[in-house]
Amino acid sequence: MAVKKQRKKIKDKLGAYLDGRTHRSFKRTRRRDYVRGLDLPGYFSFTKYVVKTIWSYRKTLFSLVLLYSVITLLLVGIASQDLYSTISSTLNSTSGDLFSSALGQIGKSGLLFLTATTGGISQTLSEAQQMYAAIIALLTWLTTVWLLRNLMAGHKVKVRDGLYSAGAPIVSTFMVALVFIVQLLPLALALIGYAAASASGLLAGGVEAMLFWFFALLLAVLSAYWVTSTFFALIIVTLPGMYPFQALKTASALIIGRRIRILLRLVWMFVVTIFVWVILMIPLILLDSWIKSIWGAVSGFPTIPLALLILGAITVIWISSYIYLLYRKVVDDDTNPV
């Protein structure tokens, strides 16, 4: 009798789950069965809205940026100024007259930017430092979401309040983050395959290269498909009393019929992030090189490593704010499939 009740319970749960899903395996899904409304501002308008919201609470959020930077500096450290200076000197000594013009200087700054942002000047982190970095980023995410949720509700809160209160769902958030990492495994396999194929000359051309890119694209699309809802799950799991897999289920139901539109918004977020990094860092590298070329006393000051640290903190808070505000917009228009 108990077994029958358990089977009925599982069957009812599965039926309730499928009722909320418009797609069925090996069956055609008609457009009328899965289209859902999603009234969002345009890409530029929504980006402006996010920036305006952050600016409205700039005192609190910029205090969080400063706190994030200081804690990271103390526990994790920053990129190496010596490595950065060595790479810059090597480019100058081996390039000849290549970087002598204004355009050449911009090209050199671009190379230094790519080197710096891809970890070329970063020191090898110990296991403890990697753990500290992950925990700091996770707590910054939680604190940003908590602060925005309360500030937009009209509550007067400070960074201190967020630090003391936002960490409650850290275990649940960590569980969802693990699911997020697992969902990125197909993309990781594609990248590993690319490295192996490049080393073996498989990408030189022909049918082999075409098949590789086809399967690599499928793996990348699969990861993108999965993580789209998990971004929202990382927001939902911060709600009081929310469990990790309940948050994943809720996020999945929230984006049904809207996945592509939401994914494009997330891609836009990363495009804007990269653009801002480029327009801020390249002029700063040019200015840093010029100042240190005429004033040798400051040649050892870690301008670029500190800029990377601060801009990294701003990026974490920007991404947290963007996804949280996008989530609120989607929730406000939570219509069922029509």
How would you characterize the overall build of this protein?
It contains 14 helices and no strands. The mean pLDDT is 84. The protein is 75% helix and 0% strand. With 338 residues, it is an all-alpha fold. Helix 13 (259-294) packs antiparallel against helix 14. The relative contact order is 0.14. The protein has one domain.
Secondary-structure element pattern, one letter each: HHHHHHHHHHHHHH
Q: Please give the domain count.
A: 1
- The proportion of strand residues reads under 5%
Integer-rounded radius of gyration? 24 Å
Total of helices: 14
- Uncertain segments of ≥5 residues (pLDDT<50)? none
Q: What is the residue-mean pLDDT, rounded to a whole number? A: 84
- Binned, the helix content reads over 70%
Morphology: globular
In this structure, how is the largest beta sheet organized? Answer: none
Care to count the β-strands? 0
How widely separated are the two ends? Answer: 40 Å
Structural class: mainly alpha
List the helices and strands and how they pair.
Elements: H1 2-19, H2 31-34, H3 43-56, H4 58-75, H5 81-94, H6 102-117, H7 127-152, H8 159-165, H9 170-183, H10 185-200, H11 207-236, H12 244-254, H13 259-294, H14 303-332
